[in-house]
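Risk register update: the risk of archive-format incompatibility is retired. Evidence:
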Amino acid sequence: MSFVLRSAAWPAVAVAGVLALTGCSQGGDSPSASASASSGGSTSSLATSAQSLLTIPGDADEDTRRQYVDQNAMATCMRAKGFTYTPHVSQDGAGDAINDVDGKDYAAAKKFRSKYGFGLYAGAVYRNDPNVWGSEAYMNKDTNPDSAYLKALTPTQKKAYDTAFGAKGPTDAHNKLGLTGCLKEAYDKAYGPEKSQAEIEKQAAEDKERALAAKQALNGNPELVRLAQQFASCLTKDGINVTTTQPTEMGDMVKFQVGSQLPPNGILSLSKSEATAKLTHEIDLAKKDLECGKDFRAAYFAKYAKHPFESVTG
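Archived output:
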């Protein structure tokens, strides 16, 4: 697994691809408008009027740029078919919260972890906070800016809307995902024509090869190896079990240990007192992990920027 939380997120909060999300989009949510995990406040890019489009940030990375293109294309397509559609790229505070958990910004991480730990049990304590992942309020919040419009449609109008919006259907004879309607039009503009299964597998193999090379570069770096050993020694002195000293695994190790103990029925199955006790323990571990890994993370993130990778499985 990658050290960076983006590729190994909170339990039950998988980082899904655009195509995986399109199958859940019948309510009017487009692929890039789905909510992300957060414990740090909500921010989003929303068109200023029913007929406007989003302005792509000048400093947007390629993935973010494609999300904006996708949303603007969805809006253009739906409006051309006579429907209201507000383009919306939801950031939901996820980027900041992820950095806070990972410890790239030490000061921000210290503030975050002092209240939320790793962000695992916090939702069961702060149940009414819609910005805390896993809370009742978070699970129930509506992130679709067109909700009121959709609720006002008659059954006939809603059926027509759904047809125009499109869906993800079964794969065809060439193993291509069966996108329809504006979903397909927007996806093609943002990401290019759908790839065949063979093309997807070829790309996945190439990505895996690059990721393995990046991991090897980081795990073989003498400075990171030395700092990882110091990190591990500090954790051991604090009574925390160390299961690996590989640089690419160290940063997430304690967090994943806590995550592996989450209740099978979800954190909301805990009573308030049980959840508070769990969060208190989590906060203690998260703070110790942050302090022990301070020097390691300072070096790791600088080198990770030169050798980025996503999780490698298989």
